[in-house]
Design goal:
Blueprint: H1 2-32, H2 37-40, H3 55-63, H4 66-96, H5 102-111, H6 117-130, H7 137-141, H8 148-158, H9 163-171, H10 176-187, H11 189-204, H12 208-213, H13 222-232, H14 237-266
């Protein structure tokens, strides 16, 4: 008994130390974003700022066009949520509607998951170029509206919804779209929450595709702007810390709790 307790205490202490070591660089990044440049470069380094300042964040928005990058990122996130709704509709169709070729079409959708995204970037870019949609927000948003993985998750979850419930709703006079909105979506709240989190993170961190499609800096996202910031201001570490903190902190604050809770609830059925 004493050996078991000693082992638990040892494991707990080791995990705590490991967690602190992992957390330390993140905490240092956040605190360094409020330091003056001279203090960030100071040796030995300081953890807590000697003088708090918001100058680095003001510089991001006044001189580095981070306001434009933020607007573009939020536009991408907004249309990604519209795509989430389309994915849910497609998953519902595959789960509850019987039509000719349903199985073949669903397997074709799944087959696209085996193709790396980097392979399809050139064909998609050429198609958008023919449609004159390159260097536009439409060209950035359109290819990412729907995805096979999200359709698959929605389909797998919605197959568990009883058909009798849907039939009773239809007998009460509800149309298919109303049934989907008022019955299917509320029941699918767990998987919707998980997909909403993944959709937000994907849109917030969008980097490669906007960098490929957009030639105009006015169409860049926060991730692209942060990469540009690091390239143009290699020696300004406080400014880089502020940009990195601005990218990471919103996700941690808003979604950290919901990521754990909703993954536990949904079980990724």
């Amino acid at each position: 008994m004493k050996i078991a307790k000693a082992f638990q205490w040892t494991v707990g202490i080791l995990l705590t130390i490991g967690g602190l070591l992992v957390l330390l660089p993140f905490v240092w990044m956040i605190l360094s974003s409020f330091k003056l440049e001279a203090e960030v470069k100071q040796i030995p380094p300081t953890l807590w700022p000697q003088q708090f300042t918001l100058e680095n964040f003001r510089n991001l928005f006044d001189n580095m066009a981070f306001g434009v990058y933020l607007k573009n990122t939020l536009i991408i996130v907004f249309f990604s949520f519209i795509g989430l709704f389309l994915n849910a509709m497609a998953g519902y169709g595959f789960a509850k509607f019987h039509f000719k070729g349903r199985g073949v079409l669903f397997y074709l959708v799944l087959a696209t998951m085996m193709i790396p995204g980097q392979v399809t970037m050139i064909p998609v870019y050429l198609i958008l170029n023919q449609l004159h949609l390159t260097n536009s927000m439409t060209g950035i948003v359109l290819p990412g509206l729907v995805g096979a993985f999200a359709i698959f998750l929605f389909r797998q979850f919605m197959t568990t919804i009883p058909d009798e419930l849907l039939e009773a709703t239809r007998l009460d006079g509800a149309g298919e779209f109303r049934t989907f909105l008022q019955i299917v979506l509320p029941i699918s709240t767990p998987i919707l929450a998980v997909q909403a989190i993944l959709t937000f993170i994907g849109g917030w961190n969008s980097f490669l595709w906007p960098l490929i499609v957009a030639n105009d800096e006015k169409l860049y996202t926060l991730s692209v702007g942060l990469s540009l910031l690091k390239g143009q201001n290699e020696s300004q570490f406080a400014l880089q810390m502020a940009g990195s903190a601005f990218m990471v902190v919103p996700i941690i604050i808003i979604f950290q709790k919901y990521i754990i809770d909703n993954y536990t609830i949904s079980g990724i059925k």
